[in-house]
Fold each of these.
Amino acid sequence: MKNYLFLLIFACSSVLSAQVGGISAYEFLNLPNSATVAGMGGHHIALMDDDLSLATRNPSLLNPLMHQRAAISHAFHPAGISNSSLAYGHHSDKLKLTFQGGLQYASYGGDLVRRDNTGRDIGTFSASDFALHAGVARSFDNRLSIGANLKVVSSQLAGYNSIGLGMDLAVHYKDTSGLFGITFLARNAGRQISKYDDASGFEPLPFELQIGINKQLRYLPFRFSVIYRYLDRWNVLFDDPDTENESIFLAFGEEETQRGPGAVLVDNLARHIVLNGELMIGKNRNLRLRVGYNHGLRRELSLTDFRSGAGYTFGFAFRTKRFSVAYGRTTYHLGGGVNQLGLDFGLGKR
């Protein structure tokens, strides 16, 4: 067992690099791949149940309950932009392994206007991204699970193409009661195989180390998660001089004020954390109400003069033994939010 853990930690550290959104290729990989993830703050990595869509992000969550289950999700972004995902799971008793395979796809439109340096309309172009992924996980003593995803990523932007190869590595542990789980995840480790053009250099994948815990209350049908992002990078602040330094004009001159180091530290720490919760209603807990809060998303997308719901998410799911229907909503801007629908269903006998 110790050998497995050592290999996982070594593999994660060998590809460790400091990367945050906006400085890497294939950022669509960070979009919520399901309505469940969308309704839970955009990140939900520490819950192990029969929801196959969660294993797309964290392969160590693959388990026998996902045998012959399929998951489909579609998000409706503004301006005709959309992202979709689908996955299928299979468990082998003989090998004691659970497998999954799927596709994540993002379309930015096929009628985008192309203009020259003078602003003249010279036609239209299309842009899209997709990732094919395959994963496997092995459980030890029904408490510790280790998994990996392999991804082939492709991007097409106005006639320019790029291909990348990535991997997710993860380990998940749950206690004997099943009420507590903790996970360690290395996402999108890999590199670009082919560049968009010869003039540009190789770009990194949106690599990220995460740790998360999930806790279900013993006497209340409620569970919550705390996810800490960017274990590989402490400073995730955007250096915006308009917010870091502000001037106040007084009658006797000008006084410059700055945020204190304590405020900067707390803000930076909070940007690493995603919180979410799920209330399960009914005798069989069929109806589930979900909320989430992503402070990093709120700070990056909030406006100075207006309040918005950026960073807040919510959703719900109705589950039966055979299928599950889910809805999630994420707010990015004042113009509205992104609605995401998901369907998870079993194909075999139940």
Amino acid sequence: MASTSTTQFPIAETGTAAAPDISVVAPAYNEAESVRKLWDKIAAVLGDSHWSYEVIFVDDGSSDDTWEQLRALQAEFPVGVRAYRLRRNFGKAAALSIGFGAAKGQFIVTMDADLQDEPAEIPNLMAKLDEGFDLVSGWKRERNDPLEKRIPSRLFNAVTRKISGLELHDFNCGLKAYRAEVVRELPLYGELHRYIPILAYADGYRVTEIPVKHHAREFGVSKYGLGRYFKGFLDLLTVAAITRFVQRPGHLFGGAGLGMGAIGFLILAYLSFIKLFFDEGIGQRPLLLFGVLLMILGVQLISVGLVGELFIRKLGGHRESYPIRETLGS
């Protein structure tokens, strides 16, 4: 693509843009008023730095003029801006997955397009990566959100820390920096984008966090409600399973099966004892059915675990795919 006077990118001799140092990925859903201002802020920070950069906007099925704003922005900055438009609203995990797959940079920075994340924090995130970390997460220590969002978020973060064993204060912060290899093959769906640090940590990457500035929402309304936390907790159980037992499903299902089977065996042994030595009737006791049920469930879970062990030897991970309606930029 030919160079323009507005771009900050180094241009290769062939006339195409060289691979940038940093790819900024910004999911957007009904953020028509914000995307231009976000670009201006990012360009102001990175345009004067020694890093080359690109900004990838992913329109997650917006119903307002977000795509029209991105079309105008990409026409004005054809090298610096790329944009992808999903056919419908698939959620933030899908938008990030598209952005990660499209990013060309050695480093990837994610931030929400609602202007609540501060682009001026990018050099601080990059400095932490330079210390040898692979993923740096933002921590909204002073969060400018309503109380009804802050309280559930604190509870969510506390439970996530306890279950995952990763000591981060803020798993919800959209402002993060990664080495590109951390996110290239992450399967993202549902609410799993919240748990990228946990998934990376489980793969052996070095993860840390730094306090970042957080702004109150300037335009529009929040796209999240309490329902996302219920979905998030369910996905947290998924994350716990895939990070601790993805290579050993027999331990997860087999362990539960052995536990249930052992309880069922003890119940049936007790009933057999009182039948044989005290001649008490056990045929009408609900405890008998409960014991038999536990034994059957135990055998089934152990079998599922063994089948899982066989599959894990044959099947590898995969990246989820989402239908893209339109693309701007090379």
Amino acid sequence: MDSFARRFLDETVQVLQQLDASGIDDMARIIRETRDRDGRLFLCGSGGGAGHASHAACDFRKLVGIEAYSVTDNVSELTARINDDGWDTSYAEWLRGSRIRRGDCLFVFSVGGGDVERNISVNLVNAMKLAREVGACLVGIVGRDGGTLRRWADACVVVPTVDAANVTAQAEGLQAVFWHVLVTHPDLAMSTPKWEATVGA
């Protein structure tokens, strides 16, 4: 009998088969260039994307050797900015306080990529707008049609939609896969993860 789990995993295979993987290689090149010029990598997202940003910042620092920060890791600063100035500007103002500049890179995790007209993920759109204004690179992993992120990014991966009822689960689940591809990408990896380093030991 065909279970939900089996159908979902079969759908994931379809998503991967439809994916344009060249976006991952393009992102690896941009992040490598950022590291080579001593630029910094800032990562952000909301909800599941914020979780990805925190975990990915760790791995980019440890495995890729780039100075990396997650916008939402300092909960005191984040909530102070939200309380005092509002959610929509909180990420952009954190980036401004971190002196984001030309030579840096902003990495965004999003399901829909942001849409100011529909008042969706305006915090991410404002962060992306600031990155563009100062001349920082913009990359990301996004679902649906890619939204503002796809239009503005120097490189991004758009997770194809097979079933609109599962767009969030598929996009957020595969975001974790794709940024792990990046931190192990031969153009970026500088360290071997612990368990891989013990193979044969």
Amino acid sequence: MKEVFLKLHLSIFIAGFTGVFGKLISVNEGFLVLYRMAITSVLLFLFLNLTKKLVRLKSQDIIKVAGVGLLLGLHWLFFYGSIKAANVSIGVICFSLVGCFTAVFEPLIFRRGLSIKELSYSLLTVAGILLIFQFDSQYRFGILLGVVSSAFAALFTICNKKVSGKCNSINLLFYEIIGGLALLCIAVPIYIHHLPQVHYIPTKADILYLLILSVICTIVMYILQIQVLKKVSAFTVNLSYNLEPIYSIILAMILFGEAKDLNPAFYIGLSLILLSVALKSLETFKGKSIVESPTKDYV
């Protein structure tokens, strides 16, 4: 279990940079996600073909896995939309609601009763978020986009768990990215039609950031997450990802000067989020949230 938690928290640390790249990359959210998924799909396809590890799935399985990829695409679209409409802090703070959404969605999808304990952990997180960030009326649209993003993120992680046994981690990610890319190919013409003046040609710096975002913050991060999901519950993973905003806010403070004046509420909120993660992690270490029949890890 220690190796599993090491992979989980490494993926969270990497995820902390995704919001920063959303701010650094100049193209709007639709094209940002399109380029990210296009680069990632090409790199994965080349790697899988060169290593002869590409797994051919049945048509019905491809549809299921690609469908999960649609959720990933929607999550990214709204997440980066939140950052563009507001700032990095808004986008990542709203992302902390993933654990709360998971506590509600996971029982419905897996047809089990709601867990009072999981809801309690989630309420700790929500309380922490409210204390960390003083919501400003000028950021209402960005906040709305961020909340929708966290809902899609929760659904993605839960549904990702349901299809994780179809193939190994890297092939699963490849087919999911293809599904998300299909969504963006439909969405981008809509962007061009309604926002004809939108900036969509990446600069040289954008290309570098997109490559890092695709290789490290997509391929490496999601393979780690898929591996972890084979051992622990989706709720544990999503709750642990409440640490991501902490990393992102610190980076945003350093790079962009966001949240310069931290008041005591920030530290109290941070403590509540850390407490919720610590409580669930402790429970998992005791073996209460290990998947009853873990799927084989092919990677």
